[in-house]
Design goal:
Blueprint: E1 7-16, E2 19-29, E3 34-38, H1 45-53, E4 60-65, E5 68-69, H2 75-80, E6 83-86, H3 98-105, H4 112-126, H5 141-154, E7 159-163, H6 171-184, E8 189-193, H7 197-203, E9 206-211, E10 214-220, H8 221-226, H9 228-233
Parallel strand pairs: 3-8, 3-9, 6-7, 7-8
Antiparallel strand pairs: 1-2, 1-4, 4-5, 9-10
Helix pairs in contact: 3-4, 3-5, 4-5, 6-7
Length: 244
């Protein structure tokens, strides 16, 4: 008997009045996988994320995590099971230092010494050790994003959901974020909603493309980017002459 996927949705549907934002989506991610979700604006990606984390209750269908049904569970209950989300806009304590922000998030690590070790480890992984004493509110955008990634890491989640982690970043910051995400995926499952195709190629993940609330295509990044349907609905490219 095979183990169940870490995360699975079955015919997941979310309607807002007469509008169907998510339409019978069957989706599965295995433990240890790095997956990217892409799609045009309004494709349903963010709504899908919110259904996974309990921020929205699905209209129909099921969500399973680790083989257990979590459909409609409260956000805090889903978080306790090991699901963590990093929103697009960082939520930090601007009046505290970088290290203090991380330390507050390490409460699960144990006693003072364990929390100090965990804080130092996260600062090193995110590249923020030299900025440990700096106020979080004074950080530029890219470093704020890395700090919040560190806060999400602090809870040792089994699944990290990252919503557009490279939004507003420079090319160099995007490359550094790709390296960080690849590092995170060595120890946990990561699902990323992202628009930056360069970043997606950097992480070389399996890609799921949403379109009109459904999964359009899924597969290795290079194959997905070359798919004519993806070019039409996501990249805005017309069909090539003679294409089926």
């Amino acid at each position: 008997m095979t183990n169940p996927p870490l995360l699975e949705t079955i015919a997941l549907t979310k309607r807002f009045g007469g509008v169907t934002a998510i339409d019978r989506v069957d989706f599965r991610v295995e433990a240890g996988e790095l997956r990217c979700l892409i799609g045009p604006n309004g494709a349903g990606k963010s709504t899908f994320f919110r259904c996974l984390t309990g921020q929205l209750r699905p209209t129909a269908g099921r969500v399973r995590f680790g083989g257990e049904d979590i459909t409609g569970a409260a956000t805090h209950a889903i978080a306790r099971r090991g699901v963590a989300i990093k929103a697009q806009i960082p939520a930090l304590f601007n009046g505290l230092s970088v290290a203090e922000n991380v330390r507050l998030a390490t409460w699960k690590a144990g006693g003072r010494a364990a929390r100090t070790r965990k804080t130092d480890e996260i600062l090193a992984v995110t590249g923020l050790s030299p900025l440990a004493a700096r106020l979080a509110g004074s950080l530029p955008h890219g470093q704020r994003q890395w700090l919040e990634l560190g806060l999400v890491m602090a809870g040792n989640p089994a699944l990290m959901l990252l919503d557009e982690p490279t939004a507003g970043m420079t090319r160099q910051e995007v490359a550094q974020t790709a390296e960080l995400v690849r590092s995170l995926a060595k120890e946990r499952t990561v699902i990323v909603v992202e628009h930056d195709l360069q970043f997606i190629r950097m992480v070389a993940a399996t890609v799921t493309v949403f379109h009109q609330g459904q999964i359009l295509v899924e597969g290795p990044a290079d194959a997905v980017m070359a798919d004519q349907r993806v070019k039409e609905v996501y990249l805005g490219q017309p069909p090539t002459p003679g294409a089926c």
